[in-house]
Design brief:
The chain is mostly helical. It contains 15 helices and no strands.
């Protein structure tokens, strides 16, 4: 049982890597930029910190997050056939249910991806098909989780596991570099921040490559989720492991690598 558990946990990192490569196809068709982006995401502090601190629920969220993004894009894309779109919607509902049940404290991360997909579908499509199938994914996931939700209400939230309070300083939140690796020297701990500065700087300088809209969206994702992580550290939360809120920022950083290098 001990060995099986360790294999399952360590398997989350290859799964995150492979799904990030697949998600990278949304921005680039070339393999090596996607490999580089997947490496940036898999080795990012939110992902490795979840592994180092034994936050296996958040590690599962980190592994499934790139796949959720792909399903959300497919569901919201009006160019997809109805069968493809509804298949993506059903898989998105299943993924949302798994992520919410595994790490309820990090519910905002998958919810944010779903809400973004809904808003995108409402904006880009004049037909209601893509909006409908995207919008119903979250309610379907909540219906699947109904017995657990009833238990949460009945126990006044005691069914939700607590999480250690791990606030993230503002500059670390915006640079996707939470200080979660205890024992590392200050110089080593700053490496993730320098990586973020390098990637963002390259994205702003290499204006002739990739798509400007994609860069703006990815930078907005990094900024928004950095603000959310900092705010939760400021307000305090008993159920949210705050570095997990930076997982979308880490994935957006990987997207910048794939888009700019391509």
């Amino acid at each position: 049982a001990w060995l099986a558990q360790r294999i399952l946990v360590l398997g989350m990192l290859p799964l995150a890597f492979l799904l990030t490569i697949r998600a990278g196809r949304l921005l680039s068709t070339r393999m090596w930029p996607r490999l580089l982006g997947a490496t940036v995401y898999t080795l990012s502090p939110p992902v490795m910190g979840a592994l180092a601190e034994g936050r296996f629920s958040e590690l599962l969220v980190a592994a499934l997050l790139p796949g959720l993004v792909v399903l959300a894009v497919w569901s919201a894309d009006p160019r997809r056939t109805p069968s493809e779109g509804w298949r993506a919607s059903a898989l998105m509902a299943l993924t949302l249910a798994v992520m919410w049940s595994a790490a309820p404290g990090a519910w905002m991360v998958p919810a944010g991806i779903w809400l973004t997909a809904v808003l995108t579908a409402a904006t880009v499509s004049s037909r209601g098909g893509s909006l409908l199938r995207t919008a119903v994914a979250a309610p379907l996931a909540l219906i699947a989780l109904a017995p657990w939700l009833v238990d949460v209400v009945r126990t006044s939230g005691q069914a939700i596991p607590s999480a250690p309070f791990s606030p993230v300083a503002a500059w670390r939140a915006f640079l996707v570099a939470p200080d979660i690796f205890e024992g590392l020297g200050p110089a080593t701990a700053l490496v993730p921040a320098l990586v973020t500065v390098g990637v963002v700087g390259a994205a702003l300088l290499l204006t002739g490559r990739g798509r400007a809209t994609a860069v703006v969206v990815l930078l907005a994702v990094i900024t928004l989720w950095g603000l959310v992580a900092w705010a939760f550290g400021f307000i305090g939360s008993a159920i949210t492991w705050i570095p997990a809120l930076l997982l979308p920022s880490a994935l957006a950083l990987a997207g910048l690598v794939a888009d700019r290098v391509a």
